[in-house]
């Protein structure tokens, strides 16, 4: 599909090839226009108002066989067919830029001043979006008498950036209405091109120079080093211009002006579409995760038992581990969430009375699922400090905070950082298939993001990370769950801080999560992987 820039270039190219508007015989020919221009130029030269070109005036014409010739002054004509870039209508002609202008000159280097009275147009003032003095500097008022009158810019002057990588060839049209100072000159990096209003329409000339015929070869026309390309004044003066009759120039400009808002609108729609296209895979993945945690991604199977039965086994095992002092009992006692015969959800912590938590339940889940606090099915341990100077190219594998959300997306497949044995032994360790979550970030999207250890190594992890060691759960399901939009909203609510955002391990423990039976967890993981693979092929 054609983008807005390509469309704009196609229109400009059609314009200067005589294909944007129809020709009208009643408007005369460009040869007749050039004859009038030559007569007026001769008079201006005679009156010393403009300078005669070196080598004499250029006269370009084509013979009966369609070959193009150029005669300069009194020299013999030479065939210039090889220089003609494309065909033009019969009533058009080719002309050198210097033959249809009154002034082509580089600006000069000014003596600058902090007194904001006499602006200097530099390359940054000339953008494809238009001319602006917002970034202009100013001439020392004591030096303005050194500027000849012809150097003072006039409305309609073409300002052509003539040096520099990335700026070369950019052009704008000077508009005195945009200059509150009433006076301006160009600096030495800008070439000023001036014509007479009844010779050539400066917006037509701008359309030619802004189009692909010029811009696509601008660096080939320049000289100098790669970092300091330059358009020589002689190159600018000798540019070949496809010239229509004057009235047709105006009609071309009107048509371009008519189409430009449509191109701009097309560009905005295209930008929106590109943005949506770029966001579509991520949006689809989030939708898949949301469907997964609501029990809508795969069908339920009664033979797989219930999540209540799964949690009962987990509670029994956790009680034994607490008794053996292998894990710590949570403050306030273990959380037990259940629903009554009327479908209301209750939570009991330790020996306290149950309280209704219907207001905390965000959506319905299948009957064989249940809700639980993350801390009721897992142990969340904050890591310990692993300083940068302790990280080596080889040694004992470790994961640091910055790597978790810049390098790993949901999975830790290999470990690029290492530390020494002393630090490793003192650190908290992550076993294969256990989870890590971030506790610190520059925004609330970074914090709480999870990744699963898919290496076969035991990893040390830093203090801005929390290890999640779970009981009788599918690690891939939990990882997808913790990265889902549903849990993301809980991360946002639990975060604190402005410039750097934090979340505590206890806040992560309090996350409310939907739990399916264990076998269904694996089926959900398989389906997510299958759908994500299909999403990955979108617009490739």
TrEMBL record:
<comment type="similarity">
    <text>Belongs to the type-I restriction system S methylase family.</text>
</comment>
<feature type="domain" description="Type I restriction modification DNA specificity">
    <location>
        <begin position="366"/>
        <end position="533"/>
    </location>
</feature>
<keyword id="KW-0680">Restriction system</keyword>
<feature type="domain" description="Type I restriction modification DNA specificity">
    <location>
        <begin position="89"/>
        <end position="259"/>
    </location>
</feature>
<dbReference type="InterPro" id="IPR044946">
    <property type="entry name" value="Restrct_endonuc_typeI_TRD_sf"/>
</dbReference>
<comment type="subunit">
    <text>The methyltransferase is composed of M and S polypeptides.</text>
</comment>
<dbReference type="InterPro" id="IPR051212">
    <property type="entry name" value="Type-I_RE_S_subunit"/>
</dbReference>
<dbReference type="Pfam" id="PF01420">
    <property type="entry name" value="Methylase_S"/>
</dbReference>
<keyword id="KW-0238">DNA-binding</keyword>
<protein>
    <submittedName>
        <fullName>Type I restriction modification DNA specificity domain-containing protein</fullName>
    </submittedName>
</protein>
<dbReference type="GO" id="GO:0003677">
    <property type="term" value="F:DNA binding"/>
</dbReference>
<dbReference type="InterPro" id="IPR000055">
    <property type="entry name" value="Restrct_endonuc_typeI_TRD"/>
</dbReference>
<dbReference type="GO" id="GO:0009307">
    <property type="term" value="P:DNA restriction-modification system"/>
</dbReference>
């Amino acid at each position: 599909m054609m983008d807005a820039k390509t469309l704009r270039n196609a229109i400009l190219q059609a314009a200067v090839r005589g294909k944007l508007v129809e020709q009208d015989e009643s408007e005369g020919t460009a040869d007749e226009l050039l004859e009038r221009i030559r007569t007026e130029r001769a008079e201006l030269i005679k009156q010393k108002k403009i300078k005669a070109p070196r080598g004499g005036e250029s006269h370009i014409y084509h013979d009966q066989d369609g070959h193009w010739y150029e005669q300069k002054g009194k020299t013999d004509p030479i065939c210039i067919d090889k220089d003609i870039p494309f065909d033009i209508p019969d009533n058009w002609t080719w002309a050198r830029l210097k033959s249809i202008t009154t002034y082509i000159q580089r600006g000069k280097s000014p003596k600058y001043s902090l007194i904001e009275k006499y602006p200097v147009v530099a390359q940054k003032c000339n953008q494809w979006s238009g001319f602006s003095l917002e970034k202009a500097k100013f001439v020392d008022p004591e030096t303005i008498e050194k500027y000849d009158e012809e150097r003072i810019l006039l409305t309609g002057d073409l300002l052509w950036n003539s040096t520099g990588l990335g700026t070369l060839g950019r052009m704008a049209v000077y508009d005195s209405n945009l200059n509150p100072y009433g006076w301006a000159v160009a600096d030495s990096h800008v070439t000023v091109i001036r014509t007479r209003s009844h010779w050539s329409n400066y917006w037509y000339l701008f359309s030619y120079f802004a189009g692909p015929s010029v811009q696509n070869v601008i660096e080939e026309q320049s000289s100098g080093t790669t970092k300091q390309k330059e358009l020589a004044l002689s190159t600018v003066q000798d540019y070949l211009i496809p010239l229509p009759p004057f009235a047709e120039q105006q009609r071309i400009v009107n048509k371009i002006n008519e189409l430009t808002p449509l191109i701009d609108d097309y560009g905005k729609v295209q930008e929106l579409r590109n943005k949506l296209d770029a966001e579509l895979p991520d949006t689809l993945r989030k939708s898949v995760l949301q469907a997964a945690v609501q029990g809508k991604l795969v069908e339920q199977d009664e033979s797989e038992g219930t999540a209540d039965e799964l949690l009962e086994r987990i509670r029994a095992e956790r009680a034994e581990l607490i008794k053996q002092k292998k894990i710590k009992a949570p403050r306030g006692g273990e959380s037990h969430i259940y629903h009554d015969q009327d479908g209301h959800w209750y939570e009991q912590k330790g020996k306290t009375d149950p309280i209704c938590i219907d207001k905390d339940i965000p959506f319905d889940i299948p009957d064989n699922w249940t809700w639980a606090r993350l801390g009721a099915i897992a142990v969340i341990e904050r890591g310990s400090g692993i300083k940068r100077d302790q990280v080596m190219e080889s040694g004992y594998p470790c994961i640091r905070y910055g790597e978790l959300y810049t390098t790993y997306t949901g999975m830790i497949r290999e470990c690029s950082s290492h530390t020494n044995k002393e630090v490793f032994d003192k650190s908290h360790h992550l076993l294969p298939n256990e989870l890590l979550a971030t506790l610190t970030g520059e925004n609330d999207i970074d914090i709480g993001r999870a990744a699963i250890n898919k290496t076969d190594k035991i990893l040390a992890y830093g203090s801005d990370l929390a290890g999640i060691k779970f009981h009788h759960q599918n690690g891939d399901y939990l990882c997808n769950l913790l990265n889902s939009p549903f849990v993301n909203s809980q991360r946002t609510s639990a975060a604190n801080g402005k410039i750097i955002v934090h979340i505590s391990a206890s806040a992560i423990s309090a996350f409310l999560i939907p739990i399916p039976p264990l076998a269904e967890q694996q089926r959900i993981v398989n389906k997510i992987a299958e759908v994500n693979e299909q999403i990955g092929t979108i617009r490739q």
